[in-house]
Amino acid sequence: MTATAIRPGWSHSVRAAVPPFTEAGLRQILEKAQRWAPYVDGLLLDDMAAVLDDYTPTEHGVDEHAQRLRGHLVRVVHLAMVSKVAEQDGQVVVLIERGRTIRTEEVPTDLPRAVGHLRRMAWTLDELLERLVARHCLGEAP
After folding, report:
1. Quick one: angle between helices 59-82 and 111-134, nearest 10?
2. Is 44 exposed, middle or buried (0-12, 13-18, 19+ CB in 10 A)?
3. 44-100 pLDDT, tens digit each
4. Nearest CA among 129, 17, 22, 44 for reference residue 83
5. From CA 54, how far away is CA 126, in angstroms rounded?
6. For residues 59 and 39, what is the distance between their CA atoms, to the nearest angstrom?
7. DSSP secondary structure string for all residues of 72-107
8. Is there a contact between 142 and 49 (Cβ–Cβ < 8 Å)?
9. Structure pTM?
């Protein structure tokens, strides 16, 4: 459908606008946008720093740190898979597998071994983030 423009001097036909979504479709997109959480945020970097710094978590803090790092690993591994960067970078494949493996391992009950486990998770996360930034899957970390 075309209509003549109202503006004087404009003689081109203009097609009527057709919205790309129905009202229900737009509502669904809005809900998804409202639930969205960034893959790399200050909390992720804070959690990595807390584990990799000289500070050693207490026995009670180990489980909390492990849960948070697992959540970050899930999100970043998912980003790597969705972006298909693994198809182009063998190192990313190795890091994805390492992330999946270490994420599913039980946290040791011995505090020094538990801290080592947390640090391995954090280093894996850090290396994967660096590879994704190098491959332009995400911008520089905040």
Report:
1. 20
2. buried
3. 888 888 888 877 888 888 999 999 999 999 988 888 888 888 888 889 899 999 999
4. 129
5. 17
6. 28
7. HHHHHHHHHHHTTGGGT-HHHHHHHHHHHHHHHSPP
8. no
9. 0.67
